[in-house]
Amino acid sequence: MTFPILTKMIPIPGGELAVHIQGAEHGPVVLMSHSILSSAMMWQEQSHLLSACGFQVLCMDSRGHGLSKAPQAPYHMNDLAEDSIRILDALGIAKAHYVGLSLGAMSGFGLALAHAHRLLSVLLCDGRADMTPDFAKPWDERIKIAQDHGVQALAAPTVERWFGAEFVKNNPLVSQRFIQAASATTLEGFIGCAKAIQSLDYLDQVPRIQVPMTLLVGDKDGPLPQAMSHIASLVPKSKLEIIANAGHLPNIDQSTLFNAAMMRHFFQKP
Questions:
Q1: What are residue 99's DSSP bridge partners?
Q2: Three-class secondary structure of residue 23 per DSSP
Q3: Edge-to-edge strand order for the sheet containing 5-12?
Q4: Which of 84, 110, 208, 243 has the fewest beta carbons under 10 Å from its own?
Q5: Structural domain tally of the chain?
Q6: 218-227: string of b/e by CB count within 10 Å (b at 16+)?
Q7: CATH number of domain containing 62
Q8: Cis, bond preceding 157 (omega within 30 deg of 0)
């Protein structure tokens, strides 16, 4: 069964968030959050799958991404975590599962730390819990490029970094969809979220997370498999799965393996 998608706008201080709702009205809720320079479009396949399994799926557009309007930058990662709670509050939802990738995973650590009582579980993909100087520095250059030449100048290099040149060449339609989504990101939203990434500082706190947690990461995603393995060793109620032959967005370049891991998260609980 295919469910229609309803989009609602949720007010936040200085802006508003778009949330795209699909699935059973009274089913268990899954809130999904995407990477920087993307939008809810990246979760299309997973949203259809989960809604067909009886879930109500909420795919949010982060500040200044997709249809969402950006408050004035900069932001802190805690601000992005609070946005998830603002969506749940506005829709009258007491508890939800949370799925976040990259930027969405980073804010997901803050969400699990500050609002565990609102979460049924968390599935965090290809994201760090801290930002070392080596990883923070490239964001200064990307911010400068966006300021000087527009966010569009970041689109194609970002998509190639996520997927690799071979995938981009062999999957032009997918690559173009992500280039378009990146290009549509507002400058304010990009800078704000980039600054939030640079402020990331949850690693010392993650051992306190008590929410059931699955960590997923593409095995070709640079240093992230090692970083997420370390996080898994720190969080008692967590499990780690590494997706073979996948880059930064394994839900796209290895969607079958990603979807199988996602289903295990939701349906193989003790």
A1: 32, 123
A2: strand
A3: 5-12, 15-23, 56-60, 29-33, 96-101, 119-125, 213-218, 238-243
A4: 208
A5: 1
A6: bebbeebbeb
A7: 3.40.50.1820
A8: no
- Structural domain including 61 reads 5-267
What are 20's strand-pairing partners?
A: 7, 59
The model carries a pTM of: 0.97
E strand or H helix that includes residue 100: strand 96-101
**Using only C-alpha atoms, what is the Rg of the chain?**
17
pLDDT over threshold 70, residue 105: yes
Query: How confident is residue 269, by pLDDT bands cut at 50, 70 and 90?
Result: low
pLDDT (tens digit per residue) in 17-70: 999 999 998 999 999 999 999 999 999 999 999 999 999 999 999 999 999 999
Residue 82 neighbours by CB under 8 Å, 6+ apart: none
Helix (H, G, I), strand (E, B) or coil at 119: strand
